[in-house]
TrEMBL record:
A matching Pfam family: DUF4215
InterPro entries for the chain: Furin_repeat, Myxo_disulph_rpt
Protein name: EGF-like domain-containing protein
Superkingdom as given in the UniProt entry: Eukaryota
Residue ranges crossing the lipid bilayer per the database entry: 871-896, 1079-1101, 1121-1142, 1148-1166, 1178-1197, 1209-1228
Signal peptide: 1-16
Sorted UniProt keywords: Disulfide bond, Membrane, Repeat, Signal, Transmembrane, Transmembrane helix
NCBIfam families for this protein: myxo_disulf_rpt
Length: 1272
């Protein structure tokens, strides 16, 4: 079915259809064979039909042969016929292909059958089978018309296929091969002849092998295709032997794909279509032999040999095992490979007579010398193993031991574990260490052949050569300024002095020519500096001179260029330069409308123009433009209708004069008759001169010798659109078709988006004739009129240089609109192609779908909820930061994990409603981007990459048309991770510095020197207590907690960057090598920490001081203590699903929600955290997260806008609830801590007051006296 659809698609893409034959019933009666059933010609509703009524056979078969004279790739069969409900199927077969029309009619109905067949042969066999139900009553069928047409190959190609256009030429062409004339060994059987086919057989014994052979001259060819049909009277297998290397091709008849039945002499015979492709480069002759197992009666017809000549331009292709290919056909195999003409590809040559076969059995090996295919009994470690084919040897198992072939890299023969073997160790020649390798500066290659070069390189003869002029400095380039202008400092990518520079050093100018200004090593011309710069456009430079405007002389009005205001050098059209002044000259052949009516370049009277004034010809009293006379002075002249000039009447007798006077009225009437332009008067008729193959510039634009339109020169001898014609006066014109450039619009955004993005591209390289902005050469309209914003992003700008322009046009709708239409109109006259042709169309439109525009009330609500969400995020950040400062790190990192998890939801490829998209974008605000932008990290990366930010498309860009494609470049994505690590290390080293003993001694010294300065003492004490002690604590705990906290904080982005890059690593430049190495190291670190963390937490003896991060805040049970490891695994799985299932949002939802439920079960079952607040937040987060992600599946359905809006609000509410619950729990936790601290302070205050009361001396005296008195 797919093949039929592709063939039908090809029909609509071609216009080269050719009708072979159209047959009516009478024609079919004389030319078609009825191989089964009966027929007659009858009338039905005034239409003749070839068929049968009330037939008694369940199947009728008709057959005919057609000679399709034109090279073609597709055949169309059209049949007009009638059938009734008793006819079940109509099967149409062309050679070995068949298609079926299934009849569903309930009465006698007229049907039209239209089938397409892929076909390449010149002879076509058509079979039509009419199949009926087993009823034998009232059968009814008939054919009123049969048509067969071909879709032909392009010009100068004599064989082609549907999706291939190789330059095949015919070498041998024989419809029917008469073997009796080729070889005396064969004779014919005339009795078996049918449809001019004669049967041949050998004149030897019937049981002997039969041999047909042909000598084909193939000198000057590089590729040969042999095609023929073989008609055989009974089954017999046969071989085809090619003289090139004596290649033997075995054909088993019941395995030949192209096979069909042919009816001949009341019997059905088998026809086999044979096709062989082979490389014949450097060959003069090719022997083709057909060897039959038995001696059958055979016929060979439709025999053709095609070839591709050596002088054809060869297109490089990457074919496995092939050294040199033309299109998709291998010509020369690599060393160690053998060409197989049946499968049309190269196969490994595993061994020959001159090669030692090295075998291994487990850890032992043995050598065998000889041809592998000739092995009968091979001794291997005292065993006799019977081996006949190499395929039996590979992986042969004997006694539990596996025997393998060892390949030797560098022997020039491709072994089993080798992809190639070029006998050298050159790294960038396509084969290195016997594995395919990419050439230098190649980005993508197939089988060692480069397909795509790195940025800044172009593919020339399968080698990547740096592009001079792309503004990227690559290999062997010193500079690249993007142009080929000499003397501008850089020419052909080598240093070059400006022509205006008098003295320069390595393109840096140190001294300029007269009038030029030296600015930053370059010579700049400045109009207004009152000095004329030589070799510039400046002619003058005077500020207060009216004759000098913009450093150019002001010329006279009819002067284009002047050396001075009084000395003109080039005049305007229709003026001539005389002594430095522009004057109008009569007789120069140029009409000056200001002073002249005409100018024919001479001073001859009566030629239509005299003294630059219009004048009729001699004797003419009424004339038109171009001196066409309409009326002559009848007394002395008469009008010649062929020349439109007046001729003098000779003097005659009086009688003649009187006779002339009598016929005066008639003559005056004839004098007034004349033909239109480009017609001549012949025998009373006006004959058109257009189409006589003699161009007359005066009346014709072209004349190609006919009056047929569509060939470049129309029937009225005017040049047609999209053609250019070579025109020479009085000669035949030659016209050439030019494909005009055009532009296309492509909608690359979803049709429901509020912002629609239209991509504008051109089909050819075009340029602007003069420099213009986009708005000057293009006008954009959106219909119907509505409120929208327009934003044009230039991907490749349209300039005065030839390029393929590309623009992204964003239309942001502010109000709802139904079925908006995007219309763009370009000014064709301002754009031209390389053939100096204007675009074919000036206007294009595209439907923008149904943009989902939020109402203003909804926008206000979304804005309010977004602000509330921002407030909750910033509140959580403030609380968690305060908690981190007070020692509660788990609160901070749980908050960070929550926000980062939510920020990656936007990469799920659902068509979210606009308000939900806007809401999800708020979670991207928590990032280091402002800090990275401040330090200009992107600029640094661009400099390291050669001037531009590196870009590598993501997995989604290849399969979707999304405009928000991901950049897979690792360093671009992981820069925040490196920044976090760098900041952490700087903090660590700063802590080491501030807590160092020398700093402490210096602080103590300052303390001793300022014992009586309370301000200094308080400052030093604060430094030692609040800063030094905390720095000392950070230093001591950095490798037990700090470094892992940084890793956990950056884990989302680190995994995202690493997974995006994997496994697309490249080593085409130093920067790419560094990027790939960094990504690989990151991947190794992630894997190592993943295994190490579980090993730490599951260890029997737990080192809680060394691995404090993994044990703090968790309970002591086995599953509870692994909470940190499980959190790391959860993040890795989450990012893995986001990245590798990015094109399958439904799979993302199912995977993430399921995993979240498992993690929720773990939290509820084992309650791993000591803090109930943190545990509660994690449980609420996982419940809401699984519900949100799982319910995203609703966006997979085509819901209306109201339902989309409703589900969007539900999800926004759930996201807000997730943040609000965390915020409330954080506030409650912090309030409780504040209250506990208050109670602690109050208790300490009470203890202090009691102690102060007890220690009071007066109180002690009273207590003493009380005890003394009462104790007595």
């Amino acid at each position: 079915m797919l093949r039929i659809l592709l063939i039908e698609a090809a029909v609509f893409l071609t216009s080269s259809q050719f009708l072979i034959k159209s047959e009516d019933p009478n024609s079919m009666k004389s030319s078609w064979n009825i191989s089964k059933g009966q027929w007659l010609i009858y009338d039905y509703q005034n239409t003749q039909y070839f068929g049968d009524k009330y037939i008694q056979s369940d199947t009728n078969i008709l057959q005919n042969l057609y000679n399709l004279s034109h090279p073609h790739y597709l055949v169309q069969v059209e049949i007009d016929m009638i059938v009734n409900d008793k006819i079940k199927n109509v099967v149409v077969q062309l050679d070995d292909q068949n298609q079926t029309y299934v009849n569903n009619q309930s009465m006698v109905e007229t049907i039209k059958i239209n089938f397409y067949f892929e076909h390449h042969s010149q002879i076509a066999c058509i079979r039509i089978s009419i199949q009926s139900i087993n009823d034998y009553t009232n059968y009814y069928w008939g054919i009123s018309q049969f048509k067969i047409s071909t879709f032909n190959c392009s010009q100068n190609v004599e064989y082609c296929e549907t999706y291939q256009n190789m330059p095949w030429k015919i070498l041998y062409d024989q419809d029917k091969v008469n073997l009796s004339l080729v070889d005396h060994r064969y004779f014919t059987n005339s009795e078996l002849s049918c449809q001019n086919f004669k049967w041949f057989t050998s004149n030897v014994n019937v049981n002997s092998k039969q041999l047909f052979d042909y000598q084909l001259r193939v000198k000057g060819s590089i590729l040969v295709k042999i095609r023929f049909k073989l008609l055989i009277n009974y089954f017999t297998n046969f071989n085809v032997v090619l003289g090139r290397n004596s290649t033997i091709l075995n054909f088993v008849l019941n395995q030949v794909d192209f096979h069909f039945l042919y009816y001949c002499s009341y019997l059905e015979y088998d026809v086999f279509q044979i096709e062989i492709d082979t490389n014949v480069q450097n060959e003069d002759q090719l022997l083709l032999q057909l060897q039959f197992q038995y001696n059958p009666w055979v016929n060979i017809f439709d025999f053709r040999v095609y070839h591709i000549e050596e002088d054809n331009e060869q297109q490089a292709q990457a074919i496995f095992g092939c050294l040199h290919a033309l299109y998709d056909q291998c010509l020369i195999c690599q060393e160690g490979w053998i060409y197989n003409p049946i499968i049309k590809s190269c196969q490994m040559n595993l061994g020959d007579e001159n090669r030692n076969l090295v075998l291994s059995q487990d850890d032992r090996q043995s050598e065998y010398s000889g041809s592998i295919n000739q092995i009968q009994s091979l001794p291997i470690f005292e065993q006799q193993i019977s081996l006949f084919l190499i395929s039996e040897l590979i992986g042969f198992k004997e006694g539990g031991n596996i025997i393998n072939i060892l390949s030797i890299c560098g022997d020039g023969v491709v072994g089993m574990n080798e992809e190639c073997d070029d006998s050298n160790q050159f790294q960038f020649d396509g084969c290195f260490n016997c594995q395919f390798s990419c050439p230098l500066n190649c980005q993508q290659c197939n089988y060692g052949k480069c397909v795509t070069c790195d940025l800044g390189y172009e593919l020339i003869k399968q080698q990547c050569t740096s592009i001079c002029g792309d503004q990227l400095i690559q290999q062997y380039e010193i500079c690249d300024d993007g142009n080929q202008i000499k003397f501008d400092g850089c020419y052909q990518c080598q240093s070059n002095c400006q022509i205006e520079c008098y003295n320069c050093i390595s393109a840096y100018c140190v001294e300029c020519q007269e009038g030029w200004n030296l600015i930053d090593g370059k010579c700049e011309q400045m109009c207004g500096d009152e000095q004329v710069a030589i070799m510039s456009y400046e002619q003058c430079d005077r500020l207060n001179d009216n004759t000098c405007v913009n450093c150019q002389f002001r010329c006279e009005y009819n002067c284009l260029t002047c050396q001075s205001p009084q000395q003109c050098t080039i005049c305007s059209y229709s003026y001539q330069l005389l002594d430095g002044t522009c004057k109008s000259v009569c007789g120069d052949g140029i009409v000056n409308n200001e002073f002249e009516d005409c100018d024919d370049g001479n001073n001859i009277m009566y030629d239509g123009c005299f003294e630059c004034s219009l004048q009729c010809s001699l004797g003419c009293i009424l004339c038109e433009v171009d001196n066409y006379c309409k009326k002559c002075d009848s007394q002395f002249y008469k009008l010649d209708l062929s020349t439109h000039l007046c001729e003098i009447i000779p003097k005659q007798d009086t009688e003649d004069t009187n006779q002339n006077n009598e016929n005066l009225d008639s003559e005056n009437q004839n004098n007034n008759l004349h033909c239109n332009y480009n017609y001549i008067y012949v025998d009373g008729l006006c004959i058109n001169q257009c189409g006589n193959a003699k161009l007359q510039y005066q009346y014709e634009q072209c004349d190609d010798g006919n009056t047929i339109g569509g060939d470049g020169c129309s029937q009225s001898c005017t040049i047609e659109n999209q053609f250019i014609c070579e025109t020479i006066e009085a000669q035949q014109s030659e016209c050439l078709f030019l494909k005009l450039p055009d532009f296309y619009l492509n909608l690359i955004s979803d049709k429901k988006n509020q912002t629609q993005t239209v991509e504008l591209t051109f089909t050819q390289q075009v340029r602007l004739k003069i420099e213009m902005d986009f708005e000057e050469w293009a006008q954009i309209t959106v219909l119907p009129e509505t409120d929208y914003l327009l934003n044009v992003i230039s991907i490749t700008n349209l300039t005065t240089l030839f390029s393929f322009p590309k623009y992204h046009i964003n239309i942001i709708f502010n109000k709802p609109v139904n079925d908006p239409i995007f219309q763009i109109t370009i000014y064709k006259s301002s754009i031209s192609s390389e053939d100096n042709q204007e675009p074919q169309n000036s206007k294009k439109i595209i439907n923008l779908g149904q943009p989902f525009v939020l109402p203003e009330s909804t926008k206000q609500q979304v804005m309010q909820i977004t602000q509330m969400n921002d407030a909750m995020m910033y509140s959580m950040m403030s609380i968690s930061t305060l908690a981190l400062a007070t020692g509660n790190a788990i609160l901070f990192f749980n908050m960070l994990d929550l926000l980062q998890s939510l920020s990656y939801i936007r990469f799920m490829q659902y068509q979210f409603p606009p308000h939900l998209k806007q809401f999800l974008d708020t979670y991207t605000k928590v990032s280091l981007k402002p800090i990275l932008d401040y330090f200009q990290v992107d600029s640094l990366i661009a400099k390291l990459n050669g001037g531009s930010l590196p870009y590598q498309s993501s997995r989604s860009s290849a399969s979707t048309s999304s405009i928000n494609t991901l950049n897979c470049y690792y360093l671009i994505n992981a820069k925040s991770c490196y920044f976090s690590l760098a900041a952490s290390l700087m903090t660590y080293f700063l802590s080491i510095l501030l807590s160092h003993e020398l700093v402490n001694k210096y602080a103590q010294k300052l303390f001793n020197n300022h014992l009586y300065n309370q301000k200094y003492l308080k400052l030093i004490t604060t430094f030692q207590r609040d800063i030094q002690l905390k720095c000392l604590k950070l230093k001591n705990q950095y490798f037990s907690t700090g470094i892992y906290q940084v890793y956990f904080a950056a884990l989302h982005q680190l995994c995202f960057s690493t997974f995006l890059q994997f496994p697309e690593y490249s080593v085409n430049s130093i920067f790419e090598i560094f990027n790939s190495i960094s990504a690989i190291i990151s991947c190794i670190v992630i894997i190592y920490i993943s295994f190490k963390s579980f090993a730490i937490t599951s260890a029997i003896i737990k080192d809680t001081q060394k691995w404090k991060y993994f044990y703090e805040e968790s309970k002591d049970s086995f599953w509870a203590v692994n909470i940190k490891s499980f959190q790391i695994y959860r993040i890795q799985f989450y990012i893995f699903v986001i990245v590798y299932l990015i094109n399958y949002p439904e799979a993302q939802s199912i995977s993430l929600s399921t995993f979240s439920l498992f993690y929720l079960f773990f939290l509820l079952k084992f309650r791993p955290l000591k803090s109930q607040y943190d545990l509660t937040k994690l449980i609420i987060k996982e419940i809401l997260f699984s519900l949100i992600i799982g319910s995203f599946l609703v966006y997979s359905y085509n819901l209306d806008n109201k339902l989309n809006l409703l589900f969007g609000w539900i999800h926004i509410g759930m996201f807000s609830l997730m943040l609000a619950s965390n915020l409330v729990i954080d506030i409650v936790e912090q309030v409780q801590k504040v209250y506990k601290n208050y109670l602690k302070r109050k208790f300490r205050q009470q203890q202090y007051e009691v102690q102060l009361y007890i220690n009071n001396p007066l109180q002690k005296f009273i207590q003493f006296e009380y005890n003394r008195k009462h104790l007595k």
